[in-house]
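Weekly structure sync, notes
Attendees: PL (lead), two postdocs, one rotation student
Agenda item 3: pending single-chain targets
PL asked that the sequence for the first pending target be pasted directly into the notes so everyone works from the same version. It is reproduced below exactly as submitted, 367 residues in total.
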Amino acid sequence: MADNHPETTAPVIVRDRIRGSLLAGAVGDALGAPIEFMSLADIQRLYGSDGISDYAPYHGRLGAITDDTQMTLFTAEGLLRAYVRGNLRGICCITSVVSHAYLRWLKTQGITPSASIDEKHGLILLRALHSRRAPGNTCLSALQAMTAFTDRKADNNSKGAGGIMRVAPVAMMFHDRADQANYVFQLGKESAWITHGHPCGYYSAAAFAVILHALLCNEPLEVGIDRAEQFLSVNPDADETRRALARGVELARQGTLPREAIPTIGEAWVGEEALGIALYCALVASDLEHGICLAVNHSGDSDTTGILVGQLLGAKYGEAAIPERWLAPLELRSEIAQLADDLFQHREWNLDEFDFDEAIVQRYPGR
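Predicted structure, written out during the meeting:
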């Protein structure tokens, strides 16, 4: 019957891809968190020659997320608020609403923003998010400098990985719009440049969003990579990001072993290196678990590469591919799953100006 009625099964498959991507990203983040600042030699000394493959204690528990997942969740909330605002008011600057979301995240880090923010709705009410998990200095300083919501590029020259690690929800918002890849690229870029002013800081995010978008639209990973490369190629200041992308892909195609390939790309503290490593790991992975373990076991920013590869392979294989031993203790698992479902269902919400779903508007007030 499923073969005769594909329209009844396709939405379930897409929902599973989005849930898989958001949850597997958080899993990769949590797996990499305790080893983020370790060398590969130290990781192997502690966890064996294959490295870490199960959660180790971090912030007093197993499965604790970092600022990477925190900011990803606030990105999702900001995009959904922008969608509500656009429908109810007929006009909206999406990037500006996302910047408001990041200022709410800043408040959870114990820093009061200069701009007035909404503290009465949404993720900011979750006490578990009011915890510093090694946030990046660029994100903190750029948001502290903001005096109002904005869509402008940050006034710094940072190309840190704090931009790319949080933009996955941009792709998820357009999971049903395969023809919107160019817009996904633009919105991914702007969502990152709120805090990161160097081209690598925002073009790496834009490229990653486009690649993830292809997977969510049921296209092969290679199609997304080619599309991102095309978008980067028409932006001269994206050449550095383009080279890092190509390096990761070429090393995977050559069959270079991870211990040789990943150091060749870098340590992922900056956006273009995180992109290159994530693509290498996703391309050579035999399955989701293998890919995430590859992504975190290296000298460098293990939680960021973990979240990126988790998001890619979660979108490719779906939620069912995530080992239950990783899902069961995952911090905020139910809240992450709810956000994933909202990203999947948002176009079905009743947001007529004169007759709207009050529960949705309470959860995502359009500002």
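Discussion points:
- The longest strand covers residues 351-352.
- The radius of gyration is 19 Å.
Action: rotation student to compare against the earlier draft before next sync.
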